[in-house]
């Protein structure tokens, strides 16, 4: 029996997963590491922490399992997207890495848009310039730390730095590279036009592979440290969302995942490139060779429910059972289930931390609209859950406009563990919603890509479909679908009306 490791370089921890050749999970281990914010809006990590975390996670993984290390036949990599690891000519890290959630690059995004053109940027890279992407981070280094920029010889994404440490190879995969804003989606390689326009040398960037291609082999010295045999193949892998999609079976047309965690993500497989000219959806290459995906993001999804829970917990009052609701998410949803669809005319806008899809508005704010004296804490909970789901539906509606087929929605993340929230999604999306028998996130998808090493799209799809099983089907309830269609139409009208005053009020919050 052969075994495979999926290694996920997350924002909070390195997670290693071991599965057999049939996709059965044998062991999981993780090692946490710190995140730094030396200035407001900055978010950084030390790549050395990722490396030490990876070593410890793999060592723990092997210690937990009863297998022989000689049976490990491949390693797949995944991790947080968009981050920038800057290396000098001696392959040494120049400064801490700038992460996906770093917000310091607003001016550089404007610089990129002005240089390339908004429409042309979307035509080539599939996305507008956003602060999270890698390209503006490189320009920030040039603009603000020229003494570091002068030393620059290589730029890597987080998981690709770990690949370099494992194999000494400079390589990336299409899905993660697409999140740099420098990849030509049609060519699935670095864009000569974008690099030339931004005056960035091609040799700074790694070779780009498809997700299941072998990019290198484990170095003898590293293998000895990890307790693995030298020469174990390391496949390209994928960015965290694309790898997670392989691990949840979103590998063919018609399948979409709806993830409700701190943020919310709607992820759709696409056999061809589909671009939103307004830039409301992300379009990236998939980890499935030759395929693509579209992604809509709600910034405060599960976080909105957590905000409400914490508000109840901190409240000294006991209005309408608030203390009971504060006990757990389960008790909150149980109370919400007793409230009729639409929360008796109460709608929540979940823009507590700004919004990505469809508004691209960092100054958007949350709101309850329709609040009356008859509404209870249970109504607030239901309205929050419905508002978050309406926000996810915004992504579905854009996908429909782009003619993305949606036959089945797979509910994952914290929202996927709630039967009530799954049914709510079925009713608001008007689509069949299913759960997964096992959900282990990006690390599992990376391991499946290692199983499918050097196979084409059909091979990756076959491996994923064989290993991923669904359960708990939720069908739309026609009466609820009709009501939610009416409420969603009202929901969509609220942001344009409130936008100007949201922005005015934001100045008071900053002051």
Write up this protein.
Helix 16 (about 420-430) packs across helix 19 (about 480-510). The model is unreliable at about 320-325 (pLDDT under 50). By secondary structure, this protein is an alpha+beta fold. The longest helix has about 35 residues, at about 480-510. The protein contains 19 helices and 23 strands. It has a seven-stranded mixed beta sheet with strand order 17-18-16-15-21-22-23, sandwiched between helices. Strands 3-2-1-5-14-13 form a six-stranded mixed beta sheet. The protein has a two-stranded antiparallel sheet with strand order 4-7. The termini are far apart. The chain is globular, with a radius of gyration of 23 Å. Strand 10 and strand 11 form a beta hairpin.
- Overall strand count: 23
Low-confidence stretches: 321-326
**Broad shape:** globular
**Overall average pLDDT:** 93
From the alpha carbons, calculate the radius of gyration and give it in angstroms: 23 Å
What portion of residues is helical? Answer: 40-55%
The biggest sheet amounts to:
7 strands, mixed
Terminus-to-terminus distance? 62 Å
Task: Strand order, main sheet: write it out.
Answer: 17-18-16-15-21-22-23
**Strand fraction:** 15-25%
Number of helices: 19
Class from helix and strand fractions: alpha+beta
Question: Concise description?
Answer:
The protein is built from 19 helices and 23 strands. The longest helix is centred in the C-terminal third of the chain and has 33 residues.
């Amino acid at each position: 029996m052969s075994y495979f490791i999926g290694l996920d370089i997350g924002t909070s921890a390195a997670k290693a997963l071991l599965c057999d050749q049939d996709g059965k999970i044998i062991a999981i281990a993780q090692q946490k590491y710190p995140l730094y914010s030396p200035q407001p809006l900055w978010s950084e990590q030390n790549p050395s922490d990722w490396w030490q975390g990876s070593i410890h996670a793999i060592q723990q993984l092997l210690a937990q399992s009863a297998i022989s290390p000689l049976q490990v036949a491949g390693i797949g990599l995944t991790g947080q997207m968009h981050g920038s690891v800057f290396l000098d000519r001696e392959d040494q890290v120049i400064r801490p890495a700038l992460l996906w959630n770093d917000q310091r690059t607003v001016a550089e995004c404007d610089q990129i848009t002005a240089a390339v053109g908004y429409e042309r940027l979307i035509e080539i890279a599939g996305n507008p310039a956003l602060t999270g992407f890698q390209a503006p981070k490189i320009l920030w280094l040039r603009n603000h730390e020229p003494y570091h920029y002068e030393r620059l010889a290589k730029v890597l994404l987080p998981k690709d730095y770990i690949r370099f440490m494992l194999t000494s190879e400079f390589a990336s995969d299409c899905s993660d590279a697409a999140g740099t804003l420098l990849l030509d989606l049609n060519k699935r390689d670095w864009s000569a036009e974008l690099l030339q326009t931004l005056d960035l040398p091609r040799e700074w960037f790694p070779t780009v592979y498809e997700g299941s291609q072998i990019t290198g082999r484990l170095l003898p010295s590293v293998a000895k440290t990890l307790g693995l045999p030298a020469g174990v193949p390391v496949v390209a892998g994928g960015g965290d969302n694309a790898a997670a999609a392989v691990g949840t079976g979103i590998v063919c047309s018609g399948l979409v995942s709806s993830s409700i965690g701190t943020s919310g993500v709607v992820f759709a497989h696409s056999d061809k490139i589909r671009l939103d000219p307004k830039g409301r959806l992300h379009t990236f290459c998939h980890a499935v060779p030759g395929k693509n995906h579209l992604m809509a993001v709600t910034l405060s999804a599960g976080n909105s429910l957590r905000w409400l829970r914490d508000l109840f917990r901190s409240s000294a009052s006991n209005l309408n059972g608030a203390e009971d609701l504060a006990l757990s998410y389960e008790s909150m949803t149980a109370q919400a289930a007793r409230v009729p669809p639409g929360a008796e005319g109460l709608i929540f806008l979940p823009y507590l931390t700004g919004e990505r899809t469809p508004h691209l508005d960092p100054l958007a704010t949350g709101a309850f609209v329709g609040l009356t004296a008859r509404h209870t804490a249970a109504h607030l909970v239901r309205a929050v859950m419905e508002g978050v789901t309406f926000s996810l539906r915004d992504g579905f509606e854009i996908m429909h406009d782009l003619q993305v087929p949606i036959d089945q929605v797979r509910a994952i993340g914290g929202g996927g563990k709630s039967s009530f929230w799954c049914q709510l999604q079925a009713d608001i999306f008007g689509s069949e919603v299913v759960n997964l028998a096992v959900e282990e996130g990006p690390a599992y998808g990376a391991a499946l890509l290692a199983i499918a090493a050097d196979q084409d799209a059909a091979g990756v799809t076959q491996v994923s479909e064989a290993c991923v099983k669904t359960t708990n089907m939720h069908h739309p309830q026609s009466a609820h679908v009709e009501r939610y269609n009416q409420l969603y139409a009202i929901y969509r009208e609220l942001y344009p009306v409130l936008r100007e005053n949201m922005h005015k009020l934001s100045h008071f919050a900053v002051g």
